[in-house]
Amino acid sequence: MLHLFHPALNKEKILENIEEILNNKIIADGDKVKEFEQKVGDYLAGLYSGTPCNIVALNSGTAALHIAYILAGIKDGDEVITPVLTCTATTHPILWLGAKPIFCDIQLDTLNIDPTDIRKKITDKTKAIVVMHNGGLPCDMSEIMAIAEEYHLKVIEDASQGFGGEYKGQKLGTIGDYGCFSLQAIKLLTTGDGGLLYCKNDNDHKKAKQLKWFGIDRDRQKERGSLVPSKFSKLFNQRAMTFDIEETGYKYNCNNILASIGLANLEKIYDWLKQRKEFAEIYRQELRGVPGITLLKEVEGNSNWLFQILVDDRERFQKKMADAGIETNMVQVRNDIYALFGGERQELPNMNKLEDKYCSIPLHNNLTKDDIYKICQTIKS
Asked: Which of 130, 181, 254, 288 fits as disulfide partner to 196, beta carbons 3.0 to 4.6 Å?
């Protein structure tokens, strides 16, 4: 069976890194997490750019989205424009904050959020725009950022599927005010499970580090008793507690074990991206013009996490592929039809048109070129 997903792992280096961690007494949030944040930041900013990249390592991409929405000031009664075609993780945290997701239509040739429809959905309640780089294919960020600037809105990039991708030379997830990455098992860069948050603003970065750990700023220099209410100073001093907690925080931190896996896999990121690009190019070359198949728009900077196609008869197509031992899937479903988000198919013409057509075929680093050609031959047949 040629599976749709298969984790990419730098196994020998992972084992080496984990052994080092297990021989150390600190397996929780420690130096390896900071090293991982720094190296991811160097990669996303461009190693020699001299521009710092504010990264916080977390325990999931959903945690990154939640903190980003908080930092964006989203509150009860606000509206957040979000793509209808995305993982529900993009949308859940909007509800946690009492806000309302406003589902936006997709582009026919990319499956990404449609900037034209974004404009139509903006009201005086709109607080932010969320974009998701579907399958790793970059959204039209120049147009989206211009809309956000015009209406004074925050932009959150859900780059969970876009790690390593680029838009006009800038890494996906570093263009908006906040960038959220998933390091879940089948993502291109994985720690087994985990997430990353990018903050354009330094103060937001500092705040994010506080929110990830119960609202406590763990980077403060210890000045015994100086940061606590005087009436409790004796108790705080006895426990070497040098801080007060003034707002709600969360248990969203990464740990040294996850970070050590991430550091090992990060060493392979260039090779893995190159291989996926080669496979995607073969697909494009071999499937162009095949009756019943439509390819999505080719966009420079695609991270190629998914290879998605449009199929005239998806049900028949998937059955034939399964019979040949090739797994296919839609991967994500339009969010508006879930009961949680209203349970009604909204008037979104492009989504409605493509709902029964889009499909993903295998694209991962454990495939070979022969596998890709086999998949193409099966589709042609």
From this structure: 181
Predicted confidence (pLDDT) per residue in 361-381, tens digit: 999 999 999 999 999 999 999
Q: Is 269 exposed, middle or buried (0-12, 13-18, 19+ CB in 10 A)?
A: middle
51 has a pLDDT exceeding 70:
no
Integer Cα distance of 310 and 196 in angstroms:
31
Q: Cα-Cα-Cα-Cα dihedral of 184, 167, 144, 204, to 10°?
A: 60
| Burial per residue of 17-27, b for 16 or more beta-carbon CB atoms within 10 angstroms, e otherwise | bbeebeeeeee
The pLDDT, as a whole number, for residue 217 is 74
* pLDDT at position 240: 59
Query: For residue 205, what are the domain limits?
Result: 11-215+248-268
Q: Does the reported pTM lie above 0.90?
A: yes
Question: Which of 174-188, 211-225, 252-266, 274-288 shows the lowest mean pLDDT across its residues?
Answer: 211-225
- Residue 216 and residue 214: Cα distance in Å, rounded? 5
The span from the CA of 33 to the CA of 333, in Å, is 33
Spatial contact of 129 and 150, defined as CB atoms under 8 Å apart: no
Q: Which residues are CB-contacts of 89 (< 8 A; sequence separation ≥ 6)? A: 61, 62, 65, 160, 182
Q: Which residue has the tokens 């694209």?
A: 363
Pair 299, 348 in one domain? yes
Domain shared by 257 and 275, yes or no: no
pLDDT tens-digit map of 221-233? 444 445 556 566 6
Q: Is 83 in the same domain as 26?
A: yes
